[in-house]
Amino acid sequence: MSSRDLYSQLKPAWHPQQIQVLRDGHIPAPIHVQLILSDLCNQDCHFCAYRMSAGLSNELFGTAETHNPNRTIPTPKALEIVEDCAELGVKAIQFTGGGEPTVHPDHLRVFRRAQELGMETALVTNGVKLVASDPAILGMTWIRISVDAGDEATYAAVRRVPATHWGKMWANVRALAPQFRGTLGMGFVVTPENYRTIAAAAYLAREAGVTNLRVGAVFSAEGPAYYGDLLPAIMDAIASAKELSGPGFDVVDLFGRRLSDLEAGAPEDPDCNYQYLTVYIGGDLSVYRCCNTAYTRAGRVGSLVDQRLRDAVLSYRPFDARTCRFCQFIGQNKAIKALIDPPSHVNFV
Predict the structure, then answer these.
(1) How far apart, in whole angstroms, are the C-alpha atoms of residue 96 and residue 98?
(2) Is the separation of the CB atoms in 257 and 13 below 8 Å?
(3) What superfamily in CATH does domain 3-340 come from?
(4) The pTM of the whole model exceeds 0.90
(5) What is the predicted pLDDT for the residue at 63?
(6) How much is the average pLDDT of 285-305?
């Protein structure tokens, strides 16, 4: 199976029970939970959706004093959420940011508990503090390490960190790759400052034993204008990187899909069914519709500060998806809608 299948927009079709609940006019338990253990990060990427001034997810994230809040979910609460996920029938938990998951002092304990309860787990991390030999790390279904650069100087500049982070990250990647049985990928978010190094990052990832390099775009209020007149050069850089794809390694180009989402602007359909299949739990213990609407008032549907996830009554309505400035789940929503309301002459496939 190609690594490109990892990002199929047709995954909802594999969950007929949840689709039937939606078809019946009810809200199903989520299939997938994104759990943000920490809003604190040990890096400061200038294109971060939570921290940049034009970010789509910065409204409720930071404070007047800091855009990098020292805010983590207390360990007992994090374990409670994981246990509630299992009770609700959640199939997979993705530990992501927000901040950096491995900054949470008990992240390995929380990962391990989710795995003990039989759920698949995944991790999005910058990799600097990754404990490559820990069973909880080795037990992940997939791990994606954010690299966003093909050389040390660019890495330090775009992630606004000491250059020593570059070596620490790659040392952890190389230590993990030979023993990891899941899918080990790396992420490259394209910016005007780093696009020239995409092919270099792909080469380093392939040589380190990584399965894929996912190339994506910055989602911000600026939309495609963020890239100015650089799009042809960026496309050429991605094409050069894709030449490194081969047995055991893929450069997965999601830049074009993300750019199309940005060019499309607000969704045409007022209904968002994707929000019911995947929920986002922030480091502030608020529940949000998705990662794009995270830490926004429009995206907030509840809080777990004084209630358990299993008991939470989430306020999903009223909500018009056309109020979202951009959406990166248009494909998934189209697939879900077709499954709920079959097209005419559906048997003529």
Answers:
(1) 7
(2) no
(3) Aldolase class I (3.20.20.70)
(4) yes
(5) 85
(6) 95
